[in-house]
Design brief:
Shape: globular
Strand order of the largest sheet: 10-9-11-12
Low-confidence stretches: 1-224, 235-242
Helix content: 40-55%
Number of helices: 27
Strand content: 5-15%
Radius of gyration: 29 Å
Distance between the termini: 19 Å
Number of strands: 15
DNA sequence: CACCCCACTTAGAAAGCCCGAT
DNA sequence: ATCGGGCTTTCTAAGTGGGGTG
């Protein structure tokens, strides 16, 4: 054990990464913009949360959470969420300070409070110990290696780079390349050296695995292994991962399924108050619009204009309908609501029968056989026609997305597999390919943007997806060994005389510290959003002495609002980048994502901007779980996980819109609590009286209550108190999480091995954290060693 | 290098389902 | 039996990033 422990510690420590800690306010923005709904919220809600961050990753959370519960709800609601203070790990050792968050924004939207949700994950880095799972994990690397060797054919470049991460790491560390060129010794090299000296991964791994750990494992596993292993799918992971090129050897599937042809309902909409005849094609599009009546899409002028343009074309120049404003779609809307209602009213048997029919019809499309293994297909249904629902201010929002036909679809399938029959009689596929260097089963061009494609892939539970998921996390773990030097290097370059270098340094810093996305260029016919490299001068405000206030729309037009204290050189550099520019000019004028990534690749093999997000998310989870998990009951542990999950979601700015019923729900809860409190008061009064041998007071209706013993009353009081506390906690949690989306990070950013290992160590059933889909998706992580740390 | 093409991951909203309180 | 609400699942939009080309 000792050994193990130490290992663990080391790993942890290695976190050399001390958290940078930034704070971020929470951003939540998009919704705000869009919806007015938010406004409805009661003030209490608004209070919230901004978080600021504390510095270190470690302590923050605990304090908050513990203490808070005790306070009255209102008080809690009122506070900014302190919980959040945690540290955000982005950290570096560079030590930035925190800043208070931005003050100006309205809190409403931003708040996020602690979550209650369930998931957590941890993992430790590197230890792959043997074990079954181990096999799996190792596979890739090995595979790759093997493959690369074998296949001379395809591997142009990919293969090289793709060599297994592990291999790379090892080699890198061991033999630091000394070639470092120019002045700048590649960080990677340096890092390698450093790491190799003390704790090269290799060493770590071995130590951990071999020693005591194995013993531990056995013990632990004895109890739980089976539970976890039932989800693990070691067998499925094919050893065959190739690196870059060959993705499969045999591929069999049945193609895709098309939506049924349009069935006219014949309901007449009104134009200037009079019924209008429409052809089925015209009616179909009118119905698409009618049905959206109570979405906020139709409130947007862009949406209506685009819809009108396309529909008008269908109607023809001389149609009676000449303007959208005189259209009344409500007959169609009402018909639709009625149909929905009818469906709801069907008996359960009818519903079941309907469902079975559908299943039968789709069953054959749901599966593919990849290298002899049956795998689920992700999206085998071709997208039905509809009105394009672009997010944010998308210039094409509302345009008609036309029906996709077999002649639009290209199928990819094994050479020896039967070509799927075209499901629409008389039509045929656009093309059939046999390309085993890609994983898609079919694609068609996006009707909204012809230059883009819509692919049909395997489901996340497939080994193909699982393997690449695992590779993603291995790469992020590799960053652990390089991050120290990378931070040191960019810190040095904050003051470089080379302007490009300076921009790269600052951009990298922001990506690392704030988990910003890379920020590729966008076309004019897309919503105007930005990432790091595309930040505009107006998106960042320097606030003396050394804080930066960020405010911009990111992916999905979600607003990022955060004020952060940064190092002085960064602060100065930003001001310098802004000098002489207009607000709408690029902050980083000598930079784009490809330059940035090219630079990152010099620092670590395979490193790109997005790896920092994965790294920071996962390392944060690992750190928080390990710091905050205490002895305690199951639900307390789950709360710790949820808290960690929430912190990650905040770092990554994963938001959701406040549900329409949120404020109603809150007031309902408040009312219930109020009732309980008066009950409590009565009980206390009755208790006092009972102690003096007097009967209870009459209840609100004037009826006489039952005569209870003081003991019974005390029991009731205790029960009621507990109930109130629980409700207050629920309420706080709900308020806290009303704008935080926990799922995204769980699905995409948190190495599942962290979670699985933590569950094993703390005897938390994995089902408390992962739902069925996640268990299937993360089958590859199930047999991780309990000592695993990210 | 700018541009385009392509493949694949990441994302929030909507729809569906399920379960407990009434 | 109904309703409300949370959690899942589905859907598809919106990102990232690699590679080829001229």
């Amino acid at each position: 054990m000792a050994v193990q422990t130490s290992t663990k510690l080391n790993l942890c420590d290695d976190d050399d990464e001390k958290p940078l800690v930034f704070k971020r306010s929470n951003p939540k923005s998009k919704q705000n913009q869009l919806d007015g709904q938010l406004k409805q919220l009661p003030e209490q809600n608004k209070s919230s949360t901004i978080k600021e961050e504390s510095n270190s990753i470690e302590h923050p959370a605990k304090e908050n959470s513990d203490s808070e519960d005790a306070k009255p709800i209102k008080a809690r609601l009122g506070k900014p969420c302190e919980d959040s203070d945690d540290d955000k790990p982005l950290s570096s050792r560079i030590t930035p300070k925190k800043v208070g968050t931005s003050g100006s924004q309205p809190y409403d939207s931003k708040e996020r409070k602690p979550v209650a949700s369930k998931v957590q994950k941890n993992f430790s880095s590197t230890t792959d110990k043997g074990k079954t799972s181990y096999v799996i994990s190792t596979k890739r690397p090995l595979d790759k290696a093997n493959i690369s060797e074998k296949s001379s054919a395809k591997r142009p470049k990919v293969s090289d780079s793709s060599t297994s991460i592990k291999n790379m790491q090892v080699s890198a560390k061991k033999e630091p390349k000394k070639e470092d060129d120019d002045d700048f010794i590649p960080i990677s090299q340096r890092i390698k050296k450093a790491t190799s000296d003390n704790k090269s991964p290799v060493t770590k791994q071995k130590v951990t695995k071999v020693g005591p750990s194995s013993i531990k494992k056995k013990i632990k596993k004895g109890q739980k292994a089976s539970q976890f292993s039932k989800y693990s799918k070691s067998t499925t992971v094919p050893p065959s991962s190739n690196d870059g090129q060959k993705k499969w050897t045999s591929l069999v599937h049945n193609g895709v399924i098309f939506p049924p042809p349009y069935k006219s309902h014949g309901i007449k909409m009104l134009y200037s108050g009079k019924p209008v005849n429409l052809s089925p094609e015209q009616e179909e599009v009118a119905t698409m619009y009618a049905v959206m009546k109570d979405t906020d899409y139709v409130q947007k002028q862009t949406f209506r204009n685009n819809f009108w343009n396309d529909w008008h074309k269908l109607l023809g120049k001389n149609h009676i309908i000449q303007k959208l404003d005189a259209c009344d779609f409500s007959p169609i809307y009402d018909w639709y609501q009625n149909e929905k209602e009818k469906k709801k009213q069907m008996s359960t048997e009818e519903k079941k029968a309907l469902k079975e029919d559908k299943l039968k019809e789709e069953e054959k499309y749901m599966w593919a056989v990849v290298d002899g293994v049956k795998e689920k297909v992700g999206n085998f249904r071709v997208e039905p026609p509809g009105l394009f629902r672009g997010r944010g201010e998308h210039p094409k929002s509302g345009k008609l997305k036309r029906r996709i036909r077999p002649s639009d679809v290209t199928i990819n399938i094994g050479k020896d597999a039967p070509i799927p029959e075209c499901p629409i009689p008389g039509e045929s596929w656009k093309e059939v390919r046999h390309d085993n260097t890609v994983t898609w089963l079919a694609f068609w061009n996006d009707p909204i943007n012809q230059r883009e494609f819509k692919y049909v892939f395997l489901a996340p539970s497939s080994s193909l997806k699982g393997q690449s998921d695992k590779e993603k996390y291995e790469k992020a773990r590799m960053l652990k060994d390089y991050i120290g030097n990378i931070r040191a290097a960019y810190t040095r370059d904050f003051t470089s005389k080379d302007g490009t270098k300076r921009q790269i340094a600052v951009a990298t810093y922001l990506i690392d510290k704030l988990a910003l996305r890379a920020g590729n260029e966008k076309d004019d016919d897309e919503a105007d959003t930005v990432g790091c490299c595309t930040l505009k001068v107006e998106n960042v405000k320097a606030i003396a002495p050394n804080s930066l206030e960020f405010n911009f729309l990111g992916k999905d037009s979600i607003r990022y609002e955060n004020t952060v204290e940064v190092e002085i050189p960064v602060y100065k550099a930003i001001i310098q980048f802004q000098t002489g520019k207009r607000g709408s000019d690029d902050l980083f004028d000598r930079l784009d994502t490809s330059k940035l990534n090219a630079h990152l690749k010099e620092l670590m093999p395979g490193l790109t901007a997005k790896v920092f997000r994965t790294y920071n998310a996962s390392i944060t989870l690992d750190n928080i779980l390990n710091k905050e998990t205490k002895e305690g009951d199951l639900s307390e542990k789950v709360v710790v996980y949820q808290h960690a999950n929430k912190e990650v979601a905040i770092i990554c700015n994963h938001q959701r819109t406040i549900s329409k019923s949120h404020s109603a729900q809150m007031s309902r809860l408040l009312e219930k609590i109020g009732n309980l409190q008066s009950t409590l008061k009565e009980l206390k009064t009755d208790l006092d009286r009972a102690k003096k041998g007097r009967p209870p007071l009459k209840d609100a209706d004037g009826k006489q209550k039952r005569n209870l013993t003081p003991e019974a009353l005390e029991r009731k009081i205790a029960q009621t108190t507990v109930k109130i506390e629980k409700m207050e906690l629920d309420m706080r949690t709900k308020e806290d999480l009303k704008t935080v989306a926990l799922g995204t990070s769980k699905i995409n950013y948190l190495d599942p091995r962290i979670t699985v290992a933590w569950c094993k160590r703390h005897e938390v059933p994995i089902e408390k954290i992962f739902n069925k889909s996640l268990l299937a998706k993360f089958a590859w992580a199930m047999d991780v060693d309990p000592d695993f740390r990210f």
